[in-house]
Amino acid sequence: MSSSSGQSSSYDLSFKILLIGDSAVGKSSLIVSFISGSVEDIAPTIGVDFKLKLLTVGDKRLKLTIWDTAGQERFRTLTSSYYRGAQGIILAYDVTRRETFTNLSEVWSKEVELYSTNQDCVKMLVGNKVDRESERAVSTEEGLALAKEFGCLFFECSAKTRENVDKCFEELTQKIMEVPSLLEEGSILVKRNILKQRQEPQTSQDSGCCF
Ligand SMILES: Nc1nc2c(ncn2[C@@H]2O[C@H](COP(=O)(O)OP(=O)(O)OP(=O)(O)O)[C@@H](O)[C@H]2O)c(=O)[nH]1
User: Fold this and answer.
1) Per the structure, how many domains does the chain have?
2) What pLDDT score does 6 carry?
3) 191 lies in a domain?
4) Tens digit of pLDDT for each residue in 13-35?
5) R_g of the chain computed on alpha carbons
6) Could you tell me the CATH number of the domain that includes residue 143?
7) CA 60 to ligand 1 centroid distance, Å
8) Domain-embedded: residue 192
9) Quick one: a GO biological-process term for this protein (predicted)?
10) Are the C-beta atoms of residues 54 and 36 closer than 8 Å to each other?
């Protein structure tokens, strides 16, 4: 699997991936770490933000639109509509803050049930900040058990050291491509986009923000 960030209108499949979870678990950092390979200090997300990543998997060129939602409760109602049409959802928590893990059951999995319109959507639990091992408050076994309960994929990673960051996005993408209905959606999205580009003046957008 090879990857690049930036602009290109030439791709075979287009997928939408959404990151959810409590504030400051590192959702934006995971995205930036994956997209640009760098680690920066990031301000809290206001509303919703998205970034694009181009990947090649086998002979397919993929466009991933990765939506970053605000974890802060005051933005919750703003983010609910962004679940629509997602082929992949990452439920993120911070392995050093136990409440961010318990909120996956209390809050975030309920939001997914309520708002996710795609029954076949692939979900992944991601425990972030494993570089802070001495402060760990959630064990790997607990993460695995919850992922099993939710029927999700599972990864632990660090946006800071980039440990497992590429792997978790790549594994999620791979699993999406293994679901025939999602694969079909991915190619329909590309066709729709080509039609739209023919009808509207060309605008190139690598990232954006909605609130
Ligand atoms: N040590 C460590 N710090 C991290 C890691 N990932 C993120 N951080 C830090 O955690 C803080 C919050 O990161 P964000 O990426 O803004 O978190 P978020 O989940 O997007 O937060 P909201 O936008 O409020 O929902 C920042 O200070 C990051 O630098 C990590 O893997 N390890």
Assistant:
1) 1
2) 46
3) no
4) 999 999 999 999 999 999 999 99
5) 16
6) 3.40.50.300
7) 32
8) no
9) protein transport
10) no
Dig out the tokens for 26 from the structure. Answer: 């590192």
Q: Is the CB of 29 under 6 A from ligand 1?
A: yes
pTM across the whole model = 0.88
Residue 203 lies inside a defined structural domain of this protein: no
Q: Has residue 35 been placed in a domain?
A: yes
Cβ neighbour number for residue 104 with a 10 Å cutoff: 25
Extract the tokens encoding 77. Answer: 């109602």
- How many Å lie between the centroid of ligand 1 and the Cα of residue 33? 11
Question: What tens digit of pLDDT does each residue of 31-61 get?
Answer: 999 998 877 777 776 667 888 999 888 888 9
Q: Is 129 in the pocket of ligand 1 (CB under 6 A)?
A: yes
Predicted pLDDT at 208: 59
Judge if the beta carbon of residue 143 lies within 6 A of ligand 1. Answer: no
Instruction: Check pocket membership of 158 for ligand 1, CB cut-off 6 A.
Output: yes
Domain extent at residue 144: 2-183
Distance 153 CA to ligand 1 centre (A): 21
Which residue is closest in CA terms to ligand 1's atom 28?
A: 41
Give yes or no for residue 135 CB within 6 A of ligand 1: no
